[in-house]
Amino acid sequence: GKADDTLNIAWDVEVPNANMYFDTSRNGVIIAHHVWDALVWRDPATGDFKPALATAWNVVNDKTIELEIRQGVKFHNGDPMTADDVVYTYNYLAQPDNGILNRNFSNWIAKAEKVGDNKVRITAKDTTPLMMLYITELGIYPEKYYKEVGPDGMGLKPVGTGPYKITAVEPGKRLEFEAFADYYDSPKGKPSIKKIVQRTIPEMNTQVVELASGRLDWIWRVPQDQAERLEKSGRVQIINADTFRVGYLALNAAGGPEDSPLRKQKVRQAINHAIDVEGIVKNLVRGSSQVIHSACYPEQFGCTDDVKKYPYDPAKAKALLAEAGYPNGFNTTLYAYRDRPQNEAMLSNLAAVGIKADLRYGQYAATRDALRKGEVPIASLTWGSNSVPDVDAILPIFFGGLPDDLAKDTEVQGWLKDAASTLDQDKRKALYKQALQKIAEQAYWVPTFTYTTNYAISNTLDFKPTADEIPRFWTAKWK
Amino acid sequence: MADTTIPPVLETRDLHCTFQVRQGMFKPKKPLHAVNGISLKVHKGEVLGLVGESGCGKSTFARILLGLQKPTQGDVLIDGQATSAFTRKQIARRIQPIFQDPYSSLNPRKTIGTIITLPLSVHGVGDPASWRGTVERMMDLCGLPKRVYDSYPNQLSGGQRQRVAIARALVMQPEVVICDEPTSALDVSVQSQILNLLQDLRAELGLTYVLISHNLAVVEHMATSVAVMYLGRIVEQADTDTLYHAPKHPYTEALLASVLTPEPGKGVPDAQLGATFPNPINPPPGCTFHTRCPKAMDVCRKVAPRPLIVDGAEVECHLHDDSIRSAA
Amino acid sequence: MAAITIPAAEDIVGPTPGQRLRKRIIGHRGVMIGAVILAIIVLMALLAPLLAPHDPYTQNLGNRIVPPVWTDGGSWVHPLGTDGLGRDYLSRLMYGAQISLFIGFATALISGVIGTVMGVAAGYFGGRVDLVVTFLITCRLSMPVILVSLAVVALVGSSLTVVVMVLGVLLWDRYAVVMRSATMQVRSLDYVAAASAAGCSTWRILVSEILPNVMNPLIVVATLEVAHAVLLEAALSFLGLGVQPPLPSWGLMISEGKDYLLFEAWLITIPGICLFALLLAINLLGDGVRDVTAPENRS
Amino acid sequence: MLIYTLKRLVVALLVALTISLISFGLLYLSGDPATTIAGESANQAAIEAIREQYGFNRPLYEQYFAWVGRALQGDFGTSFYFKVPVTDLIFERLPVTLGLGLSAIAFAIVLSIPLGVLAARYPNSIVDRLALTISVMGQAMPSFWFALLLIMVFSFMYPLLPSSGSETWVHFIMPTVVLGYYATPAIMRLTRTGMLEVLGADYIRTARAKGLRPRVVLFKHALRNAIIPVVSLSAVQLGFMLGGSIVVETIFALHGTGYLAWESIRRYDLPTVQAILLVFSLIYIVLTFLADLLNAWLDPRIRVG
Amino acid sequence: MAALLEVENLRVDIPLGAGDLHAVRGISFQVDRGETLCIVGESGCGKSLTSLSLMDLLPPKARRSADRLAFDGIDLAKVAPSAMSDIRGNRMAMIFQEPMTSLNPAYTIGNQLEEALLRHRNVSGREARERAVHLLEKVGITGAASRLGQYPHQLSGGLRQRVMIAMALMCGPELILADEPTTALDVTIQAQILHLMIELQKEFGMGMILITHDLGIVARVADKVAVMYAGQIVESGTVNEVFENPMHPYTQGLLRCIPVPGKTRRGEPLGSIPGIVPSLIGEMKGCAFANRCPYTFEACLTTDVPLFETGSNPNAGRGYRCLLSEQQCIENAKEVA
Ligand SMILES: Nc1ncnc2c1ncn2[C@@H]1O[C@H](COP(=O)(O)OP(=O)(O)OP(=O)(O)O)[C@@H](O)[C@H]1O
Ligand SMILES: Nc1ncnc2c1ncn2[C@@H]1O[C@H](COP(=O)(O)OP(=O)(O)OP(=O)(O)O)[C@@H](O)[C@H]1O
Ligand SMILES: [Mg+2]
Ligand SMILES: [Mg+2]
């Protein structure tokens, strides 16, 4: 609370450890942002890149970048941060057998080398349009300390250069952060709150009760209904913020049995028409959630709304089904792993046009496994793009021929490949637009809506969320 | 005795039955010789009385005769044929039981009619239509009113239940009936009814009984010959008159002395057997009775007596073994 | 002293066991209360298609979380209000009764068959059979049901069939334990020996002598296991692994109402109370049957 | 005694083996855990690497025997999720669960034995009715529902008790009540029927015939004998509480083994789930063994053969 | 001087769902010091309830009433429960039927023996122990001192019953109530126990009420006999009078039922009493034995039969409850013999 200058926060998931490269969860990313700084910092408000541990940089060519390393930065354990640490970190990440889990941001790295006292050159394996973005996500590890303690030691006693240092780790239970007194003059700014204590509380009601009784100051992902009523009670403040996460129904357009109705474009279009996304957003999801029509988050680079739209029209859906040879609809299965009410609503939309779907509600992993085996006709899924503000973080995964690609549209795959291998941003944009239009035309997906998150925070706290779902507590203040 | 050319209806040869019992949860199992070498013959029409203290193995012996318990050693012969060659069903046709407790020997969920019909239906005797007649005749014979055919056991008195048990045992017309304490759960007034019934039925149907009882007066009244059991063995066996008038074994003597007849003024005799009953799991060495025997000799503590025939009685006691006595 | 009528002593024939049982059941308050509640719930479940005011699956997103009629804003259109998807709560409760009862009885049936067979076999044959069964019981008891069923349901995927099968395969322990000891008791009684001595086959003894006489404890266990299964399904549903929506089991309704606990408590209290009433009724019934059939109650 | 203990040990071992087999088959037959470990954003290569690293591509029986071999040395492998030895993980969290279980059983005993005794002493009295009501309610109340209601009342409407965490004993009050209440009916019933039965026993009549005071008869002669089955039951109930702790720990955010088990199931953290199942069953077996010993100590018929 | 125990018109009723069960229906008797009264009757005739009602140990729902219930001049019907418990086990002691279940399995017999003395006498533990050893020896248990540490289950039935006797004697009671003390025992042990009880009773000069259903025991042990049927005493008197001249048809019937070695002829039918005991629930009219009696006439069914006193010595309490004349009864008895 404000009284002891300690920010008490709760998450519903256990944090396995505090070693950022060994935790792929959202919480791992949040911890990483607090404990480790990267070479470059991206301002979430403007999207500009600003110098962090590197004071300046120079893109040498398609695959190479050189950076000037900042002097006088200290790690949490007191060691100075040097170019050697940077080189070590990047080369460590480039090793294929290092066992790290978070490879999306790092598997482009070919090598890093020191090219001057404070100068580092980083080479990519391929043309990497998002190189700068990735660099902002890669925290720098202390070479000496990390060699000493290894990944496990790092997980229990993390050391970085970030605005908060971790003072206690009880895996799965709690983490304690303390503002780092020697934090350099970073574009992130100096932290204002002295201590942060994170606890894991799985049950949302318990979280809310603890918040209401003052034992917590910050929680998030509060269900909309509960959030609205909490706000009304006046005991806490509610902030509804956008996220990069979008929801969609993936339709198995290329797989499944030979006579699968979903192989027919008309059927897929019918499904698009059948689902009352607008109604669901307006009545159920609410907040600042928006309806989307293309397979990406609207603010992402390359995303466009200029695609074929399918307004809610059950009659048309029925007509399309009839045209496709299913005047009485058909039976199918809908796989889902979260947001039961929304899925039930969609289920009833489908039922209204004659598509009787069983809900198969299970674990995310099980759903995705089944999906990859081609056993899933319709899956209700979401994707958060790892908070990357570029469609590169979504389209190639689902339409670029990877295992999650159900459409298997070689044309789209080709465009996406082209887009990934050029640095020409306009060209990329055009290619993505082409792809998104075809995806919509073919109705491979039913894009639904963007997700928002409700933050419930104590009245004394001044906190501003960002769309990338990374709470930045170093910017939080007591009122 | 009986004609030796006709084999006895029932004969046992060196019958043993050993249980493995656990004395406490933490103790290993130990053998308990419940029946420890019994050889007996029962001739047609005889009533063999079997007496002995509680736990000496009478019921176990009865269960073996009925084929309900496998002997660990030895044979039971019916009409000279070993029952090990018979199925349970074949034994059932010839030997039937009457149990002590008329409350637990009738299935409370079945009507009297069904209970008595059971043996008929198991053996498929005659056609089912005739069963009811047969059963009612049997009930009549056992003094049961026809009305109770559709009653349940809990609606009957103890004596009536015992009559049902008897009817069930006799409906197949077996040769031998094993009565394991048939009256000890009943009041005297009912006991005499049942005993009379058993006598009548025996005469009428030519039955052979093995009558187990701890009531010596009852045995004397019913039996033609008597066997006295002690710790799994028959220690004395003779025809009833011989045994009651000239008991040979000290244990038989003590038993007879302990019978309390309703004759005022005679006082309570002191049988002079010690207060302790030996533990059947750890039977005393030598003659198992020596710990309580008022006439015990040194030899009794070491050597088990052998069966002897003395004045028409078979007895296992060193007192009657001339070779031992002359040695002593 | 001839012509007088003395009532024949043998005439004293009491009521049959069935009659006595009926009389005692009627006289037992717990049984009656339990039976009445259960009858109401069963009727509600059976007559749901006739009685329910709305279709339990029809959503009306514009009409969500309407409070019940006795609170401000409630109306008789939806006497118990509507849920988070605007479905009529009363109708869902009625159909939910079907599901919850089905789970309870189907599970009890499956586990009853497994447990009774095992228990009776162990009790009757003793020896090695008993050893094996006892060992299986120990194994089963040493695994927490909820943990195992959670694991299985999580891995296999949850659905009504899966839940019933999993619980059915897990909840046989009490049957086995009780049937084993009941059978042991009955087995040592003389009427079994008599049947055996009459030449009955083992099968016949088991079916016609043993089984009818272990029926009472079996019924008691069965009722209690119905309650147990309903409760477990509710717990699974609560953890998100029970029956699948839109099927409305009461456990699932509680789980769905959970999000509204603090502000719209009726969404969780109403199905909670229904579940409570059902479990109460079954337990009262089971306990009552135990009382009524207990041997000390014979007099 | 020694032989008895050895026999129990063998049984325990067999049970453990059976359970490990069941849990192994159960978990591994149900799909490929690699996807889960890799996480949402992992690509195919990462999944392959993990499959290789953990040996999921080897035949099942090989995996099983390798696992048993290591388990026999006390090594249950490394948690997929936490990347620490499962043994450490479990033993770190066990105290919370055991503490909760013990306080819950203590609560149940303290509530149910006196009530059970009184109910048996005064059958059909108000106390008896009360005891009956408490026990019937306990049987009929889903524990998660009860827990949520308690939170609503005692933390939200009247903020008296903390609803999460395990720092002080105050944090344990509500979880203890919820979990303990769950075991109360069975214990109370057994105490009551046991007492009723014992009070009708011949030796109680003997004690009264000696002119002993009612208090002495009730506590010295009756309770002592009625308590014996209650001891076993309490141990068994304590074992059952391990399962019950899943729900309770989740709601009250107690980081014990029950919650770990549930989360591990959701995370496909197979080594952890397996180890917890095994540990739970071993605890159960140890508990019943202890109960038997305690019984033997309480009951001279067993103690003195 | 008044007798040690005087009972007049003792009734015990047990309310049941179907009506009151009149288990004991107005019985009267007296026992003096050094005297043995045997109460004999068939199962369910109310023998145990009679003895329990004397000790105030009836089951909770049973109700007791009596015109007079005096022990050594103390009115037992009026004393407070605590005063009654001071008498119980102290001046009046009881021995029960089931030696197997009448001792608490959880405590050593030493503990259970001493407990009785420590409750009623202000003695040290050592003294109690000595008395226990003394009495155990007295009842014929060898190695008494070492037995104190044993638990009931380690003793055989006969030994347990001896322990029960010793326990009853711990406080030196003036009256002993023994409810079927030997029914569960083997014949040889039964004889020993009865023998022992008679000796001890003589030695301590106690009054004794011995309850049994075995006429053999009665004949050998009793000074006075009361024959019970359906909650009433149907015949009473000294042992010789009752056995030699049974007046009541029931007593006569009972005596005919028993085979006596040497007297009854082998294989000949025994006498018997047909039918069964009437239900004791609800009011009963007429003679309770009427439905089984060979001499029943109309009045038997309607008239409540009083206990007719007879015999030369009024103190002997000779009486019978039958409408037949004394002469008739004696003639019937002769038929029997
Ligand atoms: N199934 C069994 N398992 C172990 N021991 C047994 C078994 N049946 C009988 N025994 C033991 O064998 C001995 C003989 O028992 P049995 O029942 O034959 O005696 P009994 O002479 O009929 O006694 P009673 O007069 O009390 O009926 C007893 O010590 C008894 O404990
Ligand atoms: N607690 C009780 N509740 C109801 N009825 C009882 C109770 N105790 C005894 N009775 C009934 O009272 C009558 C007399 O019982 P009592 O025990 O005195 O008989 P008894 O002569 O001692 O018989 P037994 O020879 O079987 O011991 C019986 O009909 C019995 O059923
Ligand atoms: Mg026997
Ligand atoms: Mg009695």
TrEMBL record, chain B:
This is ABC transporter ATP-binding protein. GO terms for biological process: peptide transport; transmembrane transport. Residues 10-256 form the ABC transporter domain. One of its GO terms (molecular function) is ATP binding. The keyword ATP-binding applies. One of its GO terms (cellular component) is plasma membrane. Belongs to the ABC transporter superfamily. The keyword Transmembrane does not apply. It comes from Oceanibaculum pacificum. It is a peripheral membrane protein. Keywords: ATP-binding, Nucleotide-binding, Transport. It is found in: Cell inner membrane. Pfam families: ABC_tran, oligo_HPY. SUPFAM superfamilies: P-loop containing nucleoside triphosphate hydrolases (SSF52540). InterPro entries: AAA+_ATPase, ABC_transp_ATP-bind, ABC_transporter-like_ATP-bd, ABC_transporter-like_CS, Oligopep_ABC_C, P-loop_NTPase. Gene3D superfamilies: P-loop containing nucleotide triphosphate hydrolases (3.40.50.300).
TrEMBL record, chain C:
It comes from the Bacteria. SUPFAM superfamilies: MetI-like. GO terms for cellular component: plasma membrane. Belongs to the binding-protein-dependent transport system permease family. This is Peptide ABC transporter permease. The keyword Amino-acid biosynthesis does not apply. InterPro entries: BP-dependent_transpt_permease, MetI-like, MetI-like_sf, OppC_N. Keywords: Cell membrane, Membrane, Transmembrane, Transmembrane helix, Transport. The keyword RNA-binding does not apply. GO terms for biological process: transmembrane transport. It is a multi-pass membrane protein. It holds the Pfam family OppC_N. The chain crosses the membrane at residues 30-52, 99-125, 145-171, 218-240, 260-282. It is found in: Cell membrane. Coiled coil: none annotated. Residues 97-286 form the ABC transmembrane type-1 domain. Its main location: membrane.
Automatic annotation (TrEMBL), chain D:
Signal peptide: none annotated. Keywords: Cell membrane, Membrane, Transmembrane, Transmembrane helix, Transport. It comes from the Bacteria. It is a multi-pass membrane protein. One of its GO terms (biological process) is transmembrane transport. Pfam families: BPD_transp_1 (PF00528), BPD_transp_1_N (PF19300). InterPro entries: BPD_transp_1_N, MetI-like, MetI-like_sf. Residues 94-291 form the ABC transmembrane type-1 domain. PROSITE patterns: ABC_TM1 (PS50928). CDD domains: TM_PBP2. GO terms for cellular component: plasma membrane. Its main location: membrane. Belongs to the binding-protein-dependent transport system permease family. This is ABC transporter permease. It comes from Oceanibaculum pacificum.
From TrEMBL, chain E:
Keywords: ATP-binding, Cell membrane, Membrane, Nucleotide-binding, Transport. It comes from the Bacteria. It is a peripheral membrane protein. Its main location: membrane. It is found in: Cell inner membrane. InterPro entries: AAA+_ATPase (IPR003593), ABC_Ni/Peptide_Import (IPR050388), ABC_transporter-like_ATP-bd (IPR003439), Oligopep_ABC_C (IPR013563), P-loop_NTPase (IPR027417). One of its GO terms (molecular function) is ATP hydrolysis activity. Pfam families: ABC_tran (PF00005), oligo_HPY (PF08352). One of its GO terms (biological process) is peptide transport. Residues 5-255 form the ABC transporter domain. PROSITE patterns: ABC_TRANSPORTER_2. Belongs to the ABC transporter superfamily. This is Peptide ABC transporter substrate-binding protein.
